[in-house]
Structures are given as structure tokens and as C-alpha cells.
């Protein structure tokens, strides 16, 4: 029987992952946690306030709910991390260490989202291999490299911890919060609502991306794979598509021909420039059968449809 704790449950990935987990494992077996309780909770939605840097609070919650699986999504993303580096280190590293210590203590399975941010200017930009130079320039990237090493260390001590180096995630249900790949999601919303967007990276900036339903399938697929299939305990490279800001704008214009995109790069350009454009995820595909479903055209079609439908419903 799975009794699941999701940290950072109200973030971009958490919002969709919690619904998928509730569908798979039953609503009452999934406990959401985060800084603040959401304003509206139905009776079957279990929520606990949790600061992952507080080890005692975490242990109490695990014991009380008899948790056997943690999806540890609480974290500070790349752009926010540059504005608050100390908080980024504290939440991303100390929070993860608390979760892994608890996992060792209570025999808990853990999912940890790493990122393409582990790579840096000396990592190959194209087909970035699973094992290569990792020299991140951001505090966020540094915390993810450290996190991966912690995962590998605790795995050697018997913890069943599994991880993915996620690319930019695109979704319509919850907004991303403080990342560099956020321009992609922002562009969709601005295109539908205002017909214009000022993008904070240059048009030729190309990054690996993935649509949320693919990301959810990847996370669940990894966690459900037989332990013997998992040959990498630091973190798997994983990807779906790579496109530039200009290619995304052009694909959106196929649906919204009047859409205009302007470009005004800010500090996030340097972060994007330090990351790979296309990564090689062949180990994930070979080890546990990872396969993406959505290409750029399919992502854009669904995103435009869903955002349009939702803003019509909201009367915008
Ligand atoms: C970010 O932009 O910070 C994240 C990531 C790629 O890890 N989306």
C-alpha cells in the first residue's frame, strides 16, 4: 500500500502530479504539503504545512501518516535562486538531505527532480551525454549537482531514490515559479490573452522542453520501474523536444496569426546560454522504456486550446 507525501505540492509540477497520484493510488493515500495551506480544499484532499528544512516537523509528519513514498518537489528554481542564493541552498540541499535521512530511517522510496541546470558552459551543448562535465554557473545548478551526489550517496546506503534531470516543463494548469524556461509558458498565456509578448531571452535561444503530461508519465514510469532496471542513481537525462524562442513563437502564430513576439533579454539570458540545447536521454529510454508523446506542434495545439478555453470560462 502506497502512502505518499508530496513536498512543494502546489508548485508547477506538484499541481499536476498530485492529481495523477490520486488517480493511481486513491485520494486519501496522497498527502500534499507546502508552506501554506491552499484556500480551498475538498474533504478528500489531505494537506499538511511543512517546511522541508525543519527535520523534526518532517519526521513527525512521516510517522503520523505512515509515509512510504516521497515525491520531493519543494525547491527554489534557477532565476529565483540567483536572487536568493542562500535560501536556494538551504531549501534545495538541506531540505533534500532531510528527506534522504528520513528515507534511510523509515525505508521510504524517494523521487528527486534534478535539472538540465547541472550542466554548464563546458558541457557539450548538443546531445549532452549522461556522464559529462558538470560546471553549473547558477546556485540552482550547484544545488542540483550536490543533490544528485546526495542521492547517489544515500542509494549506496540502501535508499531507493530515483531522479530525473528535467528540462523546461510546459503546462497550462499551474504557472511556473521563478525558472529560466518560464518564457515558454509565459509566451502561450500572453499570446492568447494579449496577442503580444516580450520574451526575456533572445529568439535563437534553444532549450530542451517537455509537455506536462509527458513529465508526469516520466516521473511515474521511473518510480514504478523494477529496481533492477534503474542503473543510474544520481539522475537520468530526460527530454522530449528542443526548440528556440523564435520557433515557439512561429508555431503559436500558426494558430494566432496576429501574435507578435518582442525580445528583451535580461539576466536570465546568461543562465539559458549556460545550459544545453539538446540532451541525450538514451539511458532512460534503454533502462526503463522512457518515450515522449508530444512534439512542438502537438504541445502548441493543446496549450492554445486549453488556455483559450479556460480564459473564456473565466470571462477574460
Ligand atoms: C528552471 O528554468 O529553473 C527550471 C529548470 C530547467 O530546472 N525549469
UniProtKB/TrEMBL annotation:
Pfam families: Epimerase (PF01370). It comes from the Bacteria. GO terms for molecular function: L-threonine 3-dehydrogenase activity. GO terms for biological process: L-threonine catabolic process. Residues 4-225 form the NAD-dependent epimerase/dehydratase domain. Belongs to the NAD(P)-dependent epimerase/dehydratase family. This is NAD-dependent epimerase/dehydratase family protein.
